[in-house]
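Quick one:
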Amino acid sequence: MAAVCPRLTSRICVKKSTSAAQSKHKGFFKKNNGESVTTPILVLFNKPFDVLSQFTDNSTPPRATLADYIDIPDVYAAGRLDRDSEGLLLLTNCGKTQQRISDPKFKAPKTYWVQVEGDISEQALQQLRQGVQLKDGLTLPAQAQRMAEPELWPRTPAVRYRANIPTSWLSLTISEGRNRQVRRMTAAVGFPTLRLVRWQIGDWQLADLAPGMSRTIPLTR
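Output:
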């Protein structure tokens, strides 16, 4: 049964364009620019730590990319997830769906499970809820609550702890997409982020996807 993309599915999905030299896995379609996608799909991917949210890398030696995990042609990432973060990354072959997921003006909520250094206080959580002053301005109000340590896969490499300092977890939902925003927000209230896992984007959750695994669902047009 086809899944409906809530508030994010368009009637016509248009392919994007770029140079012919780029591979099929980068999700760009110069020859098909303006052609509607007959079968729009959404790919839910659990991005492991230390993997770039792109299909190519020119570094020497090359770093791990999406191409090491996803062999689905004509898809591209709807938004980004930092190399040192883990969790849900959405990919699609539908240009308008990509825009509605990644464009900040649509304010798609994103929920992160965050391990921080220290025993996070209610005062700090309230600051996150009200908005935090960063160098690029005040953040929008967020949903923030303390949570028990979730049952997650072991991270490789493991998180570095300081033996004499406790850690704690919180669930943080934001509707913006500033660079490294969650890490900067927790640092601003005095609790640096140690591990960051994106659990949900809009109505899509990571659920039981293991690191490096993906699930493809059709989108109704």
